[in-house]
Design brief:
This protein has two domains: 9-102; 137-264, Nucleoside Triphosphate Pyrophosphohydrolase, CATH 3.90.79.10. 19% of the residues lie in helices and 35% in strands. The chain has helices spanning 76-79, 85-102, 176-188, 249-264; strands at 9-15, 18-22, 31-32, 44-51, 54-60, 71-75, 114-116, 123-125, 131-132, 137-146, 149-154, 166-169, 191-203, 208-219, 231-236. It is globular and about 55 Å long. The structure holds zinc ion. Zinc ion is lined by residues 107, 109-110, 112, 125, 127-128, 130.
Amino acid sequence: MPERPTDEALWFAFQGDRLLVLEGDEPRVPRASTVAEIGVEALFRQPVGSLNGSPCWAAEVPEWVGVPPGAAFVDLRAIFAAVDEEFFAVAGRAKQVVNWHATHRFCGKCGGVTEPASGELAMRCTRCGMMHYPRVSPAVIVRVRREDEILLARSPGFPKGMRSVLAGFVEPGESIEETIHREVREEVGIEVENLGYFGSQPWPFPNSLMIGFTADYAGGEIRPEPGEIEDAGWYRADDLPQLPPKVSIARRMIDAFTAEARMRRPR
Ligand SMILES: [Zn+2]
């Protein structure tokens, strides 16, 4: 396990999926030299980069630890509309590292107890020596355009009224391009072409990497996949429904579509 931080660090302490934040108007995490100073104990801690020049640490807080005074454990999803992209990135990295540690106490091959490996982010089996690395699950997110309209859809788990671009996990043996064509076909029954890379974003629910692409409509009628898509439709930039929070790549992709639409049709 790494040494304790030498300077005061920002602590991203997770109890399960919930982050320890200080009470106040906007979400902040405690600053201290040790995890004990913030009033909790930790099963695991790990440096996870820096934020505005301050070193940041992830800590795994066991379930039996109570909430320190003036603080609360909150679901990261509940605050992500209120935090900026840099904070979300560090909190997401910390959440993924803690979640990985919490789910790899035992070796998946032989059932032996694992321990943190020295020199890299891995858990090593004390019985068979197998190394267990944090898992990252690639997923594609694709923005489909048909002339001056964008395809937006609603999944059953979305907040009320919200619609977004399509997304789905890459399956074993599949290229990202194949995933895009398969997901769009499965979820809404249409074909796309002219794939273009947009950007990517780690998405810590629980360990995705969202890989963003743009695409053009190439044919077919929208047929929402039962159980997966509640409804899907074409939207103009001046008539959009409720959208995902600013911090998400989905929203950045939709905002870019809106900006492009304005450039095409000056008002
Ligand atoms: Zn083992």
